[in-house]
Amino acid sequence: MCRWLAYSGSPVLLEDLLYKPQNSLIVQSLHAQLGAEPTNGDGFGIAWYGDPPTPGEFRSTEPAWNDRNLRDLAAHISSRRVFAHIRASTGSPVQLTNCHPFRHGRWLWMHNGYIGNLSAVKRDLVLAVDPGLYPEIEGSTDSELFFYLALTYGLEEDPPAAVARAVGHIEAVGRDRGVDFPIQMTVATTDGDTTWAFRYSSEGRSRSLFHSTDVATLREQYPENPVLHLVSDDARLIVSEPLGDLRGAWREVPESSCVVVRGGEQELLPFLPVGPLVGV
Q1: Per-residue DSSP letter, 142
Q2: What is the Cα–Cα distance from 151 to 169, expressed in whole angstroms?
Q3: Could you give the 3-state DSSP secondary structure of residue 21?
Q4: 64: helix, strand or coil
Q5: Four-CA torsion 211, 27, 246, 258, nearest 10 degrees
Q6: Which residues pair with 228 in a beta bridge?
Q7: What is the pLDDT of residues 37-57, one digit of tens each?
Q8: Could you tell me which residues are beta bridge partners of residue 196?
Q9: SS3 state at 193
Q10: According to a count of CB atoms within 10 Å of the terminal CB, is the N or C end of the chain lower?
Q11: Is the pLDDT confidence value at 27 over 60?
């Protein structure tokens, strides 16, 4: 599987997110504690928002713990919204176009999990992608295909509804092909202003996902913790696994849920797939 984080709040250096925490994403690339496997060395990607409307991005097939360019860039780039992903391939090639996050205009997408028995369902899923979007698919992962299905179903207008319809379509096709558990997912997507994160699996046993708690409250509880004074009150993190063991700093995202982060506001919503619409 993979590990990822999504940050929003006051601008922070990427190295403060990727390298400095006790259980940083770089540590997780070698020693993940809650993943399906401890090592996530099949490439990585980071994406961040600055002055241009579209996000910047740096992806590599190198293991994150071994990339000197990442270390250097992380010490010089700061951003108010960051996506970062370390990859453990479920079978697709280790190549640049298969590294997350995926980008479409100002939108980003990253995924931990898989579409079950992709070889049996891929043709039907690809044919469901909007013909105008299909040429933008560059890699061979189920994650990128999932992204373009969500875009086809209206991600740019209503992300929760679009992801629900995409997942419903994947499950319908999978079960028609005899796949018991068609999808396993934690997903994050953003337009640069709002982040949506989803935790769901057909089996009802989804990969781990956590969100940070209120920074102002933590600052009162731990006034001597320097990290809490580096970020604004509206700072929020959604992560595959906690970045540290500070008591009260992390809450698990419930099964079949969607977390919405907009500024300092955070909302937890139920998430359920929506089956294909007959005749559409």
Answers
A1: H
A2: 13
A3: coil
A4: helix
A5: 10
A6: none
A7: 789 899 999 999 999 999 999
A8: 189, 260
A9: coil
A10: C
A11: yes
* Res 55: pLDDT: 98
Question: Strand 236-239 vs strand 250-252: parallel, antiparallel, or unpaired?
Answer: unpaired
- Pick from 226, 231, 222: which is nearest to 264 by CA? 231
Do residues 258 and 197 make contact, with C-beta atoms less than 8 angstroms apart? yes
Strand order in the sheet with 257-262: 102-104, 107-115, 183-190, 194-201, 257-262, 265-270
Task: Please give the Cα distance from 259 to 268 (Å, whole number).
Answer: 5
* Amino acid making up residue 25: L
Contact (Cβ atoms closer than 8 angstroms) between residue 23 and residue 3: no
pLDDT at 224: 67
Strand partners, 124: none
Position 216 scores a pLDDT of 75
Asked if 108 and 156 touch (Cβ cutoff 8 Å), the reply is: no
Two tokens, residue 32: 């993940």
- Dist. CA 185–CA 203, nearest whole Å: 11
Q: Which residue, chain included where needed, has tokens 């046993």?
A: 205
Minimum mean pLDDT range among 134-138, 157-161, 262-266: 262-266
Give the amino acid at 53: P
How many other CB atoms are there within 10 angstroms of residue 157's CB atom? Answer: 8
Place of tokens 């977390």: 259
Q: If you average pLDDT over residues 250-278, what whole number do you get?
A: 91
